[in-house]
Amino acid sequence: MSSGVYRKFAWAGAILIAIILIGTVGYWFIGGRQYSFVDTLYMTVITITTIGFTEVIDLSGNAGGRIFTIFIAISGIGIMAYIVTNITALVVEGELTESFRRRKMEKIAGNYRGHYIVCGCGSVGCYIANELHATNRLHVIVDVNKKNVESNLESFRDEVFIEGDATDSDTLLRAGVEKAAGLFAVTGDDNQNLVVTLTAKQLNPRLRVVARCNDIRNTEKMKKTGADAVVSPSAIGGLRMASEMVRPTVVSFLDTMLRDRERNLRVEELPVPESFVGRPISALNLKRFSHALLLAVKTGENWVYNPPESYVIDQENTLVFMTTPEGRDELAGLLKE
């Protein structure tokens, strides 16, 4: 529930308790201090709830007592009606359901480890979330706009959404930033992406952050705040259009690879296991994996494409494969053995 709803119920509850206390003490004085606390409390409760049982304290001929009872009845019934009305509105309007859903998603996000956080559920963020979903990677989507969250929930029922401002540390903590592997700062505003990057890096310095940059002049600023990579959608879009013109077959191949839901091929990367350092690639016995194709080996800034089996593996190497998400997991598991 929102803080405003909590405040409404808190005030209503406090007023109801105050009325009960006033009624209990008042009836004790009206009864000449002859009745017990339970008796005067009982008298107050049956008056507020309009149960109408026999009066414990005889008010016949006691004008002051009856006026006091009228005051307790009107004020108590009024506040009870207010509470019941608001509870009914919560159920009807779905706020209670929304509160449970939000708590459930925050609990799921809190249990994640090594996941990815997508800050911004706009046009770019949705494509990122879709790719993470397609490749079976745990992720949490954060957006301050409730409508964006609701519209995406209709398409992705299994997604974990956190409604809140990603520039706020508390929101990122609820998304599990301290245990996350990476974060995408992809709101539509460069200033917000810059603050999200800075906040995330302060909470988790080991976190890899990829930031969206609409104005290319802000690239260096984002890198200085901690972004590990900065991507300009307009620059990427321009390169894509040029590729469509000069190398359409290559683009068609990549599109088919990304959109084919049956094979679901991707270019994936895996670190080299320590047990294979100093040994040739042939020691990996990649022929076991008919679904995986080794494309390249990266060492620092250098690349070796289509490496021969005699290539000696270094500790800083990263292996680049073409495989399926399931194949990636199988390959990673077998290489650790």
Describe the structure in brief.
The protein is an alpha/beta fold and 337 residues long. It has 3 domains: 3-93, Helix Hairpins, CATH 1.10.287; 113-231, 3-Layer(aba) Sandwich (Rossmann fold), CATH 3.40.50.720; 265-336, Regulator of K+ conductance, C-terminal domain (Alpha-Beta Plaits, 2-Layer Sandwich).
Describe this structure in words.
By secondary structure, this protein is of the alpha/beta class. It folds into three domains: 3-93, Helix Hairpins; 113-231, NAD(P)-binding Rossmann-like Domain (Rossmann fold); 265-336, Alpha-Beta Plaits (2-Layer Sandwich), CATH 3.30.70. The protein is 52% helix and 15% strand. It has twelve helices and ten strands. The chain has helices at 3-30, 37-48, 63-93, 95-111, 123-134, 146-155, 169-174, 190-203, 219-224, 233-246, 248-259, 325-336; strands spanning 116-119, 139-143, 160-163, 182-185, 208-212, 229-231, 266-271, 293-299, 302-305, 317-323. A six-stranded parallel β-sheet has the order 3-2-1-4-5-6, with helices on both faces. α8 links the parallel β4 and β5. α1 packs across α2, α1 (3-30) runs antiparallel to α3 and α10 (233-246) packs across α11 (248-259). The longest helix has 31 residues, at 63-93. It is elongated and about 110 Å long. It starts with a helix and ends with a helix.
